[in-house]
Design a protein that fits this description.
alpha/beta; Phenylalanine Hydroxylase; four-stranded mixed sheet; 12 helices; 6 strands; 46% helix
């Protein structure tokens, strides 16, 4: 997580306001318009309800205090401005304190379709609507507390749990497969891809998730589904660290993706 980024987060002024350029607001506007079309009939009801609550402006990047008013009222959460990349320690500390880290930069037009690091569009459009949901919010809070207290070698296992829920989680509903993970909801390509026959989709068992390797730079070959958002609350009440110990004993599953090619030095 502490790799370098070519992006620099913008600093809020004394009143907490970030000055965005016309071009940055235009990129936001285009990203939101495109993605709202993409997620139609695919995002879970809880996400769509949350989207109504946070009432994102479409013509400009929202200011963080606008989101904080809604999140504070709904679940006691806040968003916190952070540099482009933060380390695990800071990431877990923020979540443990009900603060969701938001990198205050937006992707360039060259990386309009995909960038590897999370920008303000991914963090706000992908995640903030779900943070209005009490079950999702409690899961994320508990996850932060566990991660902050965990040792470095255990955090790698916990990262998989976050990856396959908060970032790339799916839900089986009466209406069919729905998305709640922000990594999918903010990606036009992945929103379509999960509905193809390419990925393997399995019911979520926490132990399996902790043992599943992933890569951040490809479409996911594996996704896990819950049956309702309340399942996340149930997971938050489990003894997750004892499952981490079990996962360490059993070892990781065979990756379902090729190893990353090493760049020639």
């Amino acid at each position: 997580m502490a790799k370098s980024s070519k992006y620099t987060s913008k600093q809020p002024d004394a009143n907490g306001i970030i000055a965005w350029s016309d071009e940055e607001n235009k990129i936001w506007s285009e990203l939101v318009a495109r993605q709202l079309k993409c997620i139609e009939g695919k995002a879970c009801d809880e996400y769509m309800e949350g989207l109504k609550k946070i009432n994102l402006p479409q013509d400009r990047i929202p200011q963080l205090h606008e989101l904080n008013e809604v999140l504070g009222k709904e679940t006691g959460w806040q968003v916190a401005p952070v540099p482009a990349l933060i380390d695990f320690d800071e990431f877990f500390r923020l979540l443990a304190n009900k603060q969701f880290p938001v990198a205050t930069f937006i992707r360039s037009r060259e990386e309009f379709d995909y960038l590897q690091e999370p920008d303000i569009f991914h963090e706000i459009f992908g995640h903030c609507a779900m943070l209005t949901n009490p079950d999702f919010a409690e899961f994320t809070h508990k996850y932060g507390q566990l991660g902050y207290a965990a040792q470095k070698k255990d955090r790698v296992y916990l990262a998989r749990l976050y990856w396959f829920t908060v970032e790339f989680g799916l839900m089986q509903t009466e209406k069919g497969l729905r998305i709640y993970g922000g990594g999918i909801l903010s990606s036009p390509g992945e929103t379509q891809y999960v509905y193809t026959d390419k990925p393997e989709i399995s019911p979520l068992e926490v132990l399996d998730v902790l043992r599943t390797p992933y890569r951040i730079d490809i479409m996911q070959p594996v996704y896990y589904t819950i049956n309702s958002i309340h399942d996340l609350f149930d997971i938050s009440q489990m003894d997750i660290m004892s499952l981490v110990e079990k996962a360490k004993e059993l070892g990781l599953f065979e990756p379902k993706f090729p190893p990353k090619e090493k760049l020639a030095s």
